[in-house]
Amino acid sequence: MQTAMPIEVRHLTHTYSEGSAFQATAIRDVSLTLEDGEFVAVVGHTGSGKSTLVQHLNGLLTPTEGQILVDGADMFAPGADKRLIRRKVGLVFQYPEYQLFEETVAKDVAFGPKNLGLSADEIDRRVRQAMAHVHLDYDQYAQRSPFELSGGQMRRVAIAGVLAMEPRFLILDEPTAGLDPMGRDHILGMIQELHRQGGVTVVMVSHSMDDVARLATRLIVMSKGQVVATGTPREIFRQADMMASIGLGVPEAARLCAALRGRGLMLPEDLYTLEELRDHLLRLWKERGKA
Question: What is the pLDDT of residues 246-273, one digit of tens each?
Answer without folding.
Answer: 999 888 888 888 888 888 887 877 777 8
